[in-house]
Amino acid sequence: MTQLTDYRLIANNKIQKGYYYAQSFSLKEKSADVANGFKQIDPTVDVIRYDFWADAPFYRYLNGESTRSERA
Question: Which of 2, 29, 50, 63 has the fewest Cβ atoms nearer than 10 Å?
């Protein structure tokens, strides 16, 4: 995987059944928590997880930070 300047690695956590799927993007370190949440709903589900690069505002959003500038 090639690192991209000014981008951060995050995780995609995805479940699928037939034509339907649900996915939740998360910080890499929170991916196991998301997978456990899916499994609480259906213990038989397989969670497909992969990392990818996201821009800084989306990373901050996942981290619970504001995506807007904090200018007064």
Answer: 2
Query: What is the residue-wise DSSP string for 9-61?
Result: EEEEEEEEETTEEEEEEEEGGGHHHHHHHHHHH-TTPPPEEEEEEEEHHHHHH
User: Considering the entire predicted model, what is its pTM?
Assistant: 0.76
Instruction: Give the integer Cα–Cα distance in Å for 54 and 69.
Output: 18
Looking at residue 72, its pLDDT comes to 44
Q: What is the distance of C-alpha 62 from the center of its chain?
A: 8
Nearest to 8 by CA among 43, 60, 48, 54: 54
